[in-house]
Amino acid sequence: MWPFMAVVALASCAATDRPVAPGPVGPPRTETGARILDIDGATRFQVMDNFAASDCWSMQKVGLWSEENRNRVADLLFSMDKGIGLSAWRFNIGAGKCPDISPWRTAETFETAEGRYDWSRQAAERWFLAAAKARGVRQFIAFVNSPPARMTKNGKTYCTPEVGPTNLKDGHEGQYARYLADILRHFREDPDPAQRIDFGWISPVNEPQWDWNGPGQEGNRVPNDVLKSILRALDAELKRQSVPAKILAPESGSLAIPGMTGPIEMYGARYGAYVRDFCGDPEMADIMGRLVCSHSYRADLLPNGLVNARQKLRAQFDLYPGWKFWQSEYCVMQGPDGVGGGGRDMGIDAALNIARVMHQDLVLLNASAWQWWTAVSKEHFQDGLLYTDYHKIGDPETIYTSKTLWAFGNYSRFVRPGARRVALAGAEDLSGLLGSAWDDRETGRLVVVLINMGAAPETVRLRERRLQDNAAVRSWTPWVTSDQPGDDLRRDTAVAGGTDYTVPARSVVTLVGNTGA
Asked: Mind giving me the DSSP string for 79-112?
């Protein structure tokens, strides 16, 4: 982590908030020059389900560390006062150790034979499940990258060209469904209360439109017809075993390719066109609970990638009212300048770019969940919230925080499950100020997340109207992440409602509004 601290300037609060007539361009401003941000509590959008990250595949290593260092990692991820307060955790159900694959990209399977399991496996990952639960996480998602090798055509947990449309053996949808349901039921009924995890969701495929040829990691391509068969079998098996988990699909690999909105043909089979083929299928609507999930990889290029891909996908969703959308995996693969995610960027540049992607998914796609790829990374790549130089037993158990971690926390710690996004006008500049507002009636708070991409501070005044129960904000408490020393979700001095606040340059600020007495 680079140690930085910010100085936050508070503008004059004495002048009236009557807006000055705007010029040809730009937002309305007060007579003090503050940008007016109008919040309309009666214009309401999605309800937030969660912010999450995954254990894949690093927690099988980190979970073997000393208790002190394991707890430090868990606090940084899950604690509401020591960390970023993730509200959900994604658990990878391993497909079995494959010797062809890097040990950091393959994981144990619980299955020892058909219908038989060794529940002592994945102990390191299970430690973090329990640690998340102990720190207040209530939502858990199980996901799969490949079926176990026993169920694959080539006996491996990655694809090769000769397996054809999918590596899952023909006719094994039922066995695969039983395998997943058995695992979820075991966790739900574990005799140890600390290890008892009620998975609310199960994701049986991952990025099914990629070919996954070669031993880079666990992976399996799945054409649409086979995917539907898997979902039918899993739905029936979950019901048979009385496991109330919901099914997540299709986990598309990207928003920005035809795979989300149009078909791909490979190996004589059809992949993609997920919105039309799944949202438009009444049977799938029932099985999927009208929830579709995708990854935001390669949908972050400026000037148009951040907008066009999402507008096109939003237009597709609008044809099927009643469906929710989750962004269920992201790290930097392309980036705003098209140079990729190579190298560890622990500073504010990567954090701001990622926060902007989060904002676009939340505001343009009405995402009800936003989930990061892997919580801890050993790579020199922009794919972690935390980083380590640890590779094998005996190495120092290093932990490095990133500004991305804390910027993610500007959302995850304060926009809690059940908060509803409401309209915010005046902060829609991809290279300047971006903002979203969230009404959390359970806590009596109005939360505003502001991203200042610009090189200069931006003074704002928030004006709210038509909040539920005629509430009004009495004070705003700012939480600041910037490139200045100590600005890692630093709590700033509260300001009165209706007064000015200066958002530091190159920062993410969460303003928590108290609407109580």
From this structure: -TTTS---SEEEEE------TTS-TTS----SEE
Please name which of 500, 514, 453, 506 lies closest in space to residue 480, comparing C-alpha atoms: 506
- Residue 407 φ then ψ, to 5°: -65, -40
Q: Which of 106, 107, 105, 110 is nearest to 121 (CA)?
A: 110
pLDDT of 517 reads 52
156 DSSP assignment: S
Nearest in space to 366 (alpha carbons), one of 303, 302, 291: 291
Within 13 A of 3's CA, how many CA atoms are on the CB side?
Answer: 0
Write down the pLDDT at residue 515.
87
Task: Give the whole-angstrom CA distance, residue 378 versus residue 60.
Answer: 13
DSSP β-ladder status, 420-425 and 35-47: antiparallel
CATH code of the domain made up of 50-414: 3.20.20.80
Residue pointed to by tokens 């099988």: 60
The residues facing 481 across adjacent strands are 488, 508
Q: Say how far apart CA 64 and CA 66 lie, in whole Å.
A: 7
Amino acid 502 reads T
Cα–Cα distance between 110 and 148 in angstroms, integer? 9
* In the chain, ranges of CATH 3.20.20.80 domains: 50-414
Which region, left, alpha or beta, applies to residue 360 given φ > 0 means left and ψ of -120 to 50 means alpha?
alpha
Residues 6 or more apart whose CB falls under 8 angstroms from that of 43 comprise: 422, 423, 466
Evaluate if residue 14 carries a pLDDT over 90.
no
38-71 pLDDT tens trace: 999 999 999 999 999 999 999 999 999 999 999 9
What is the location of CATH 2.60.40.1180 in the chain? 35-47+421-514
Which CATH number, 2.60.40.1180, 2.40.70.10, 3.30.420.40, 3.40.50.300, labels domain 35-47+421-514? 2.60.40.1180
Render pLDDT for 141-170 as a digit per residue (tens, 0 to 9): 999 999 999 999 999 999 999 999 999 999
**What's the predicted TM-score (pTM) here?**
0.94
Chain centre distance of CA 147: 24
CA distance 294 to 254: 6
Cα 492 to Cα 477: distance, rounded to the nearest angstrom: 7
Task: Render 172-205 in DSSP notation, one character per residue.
Answer: -HHHHHHHHHHHHHHHHH-SSGGG----SEEE--
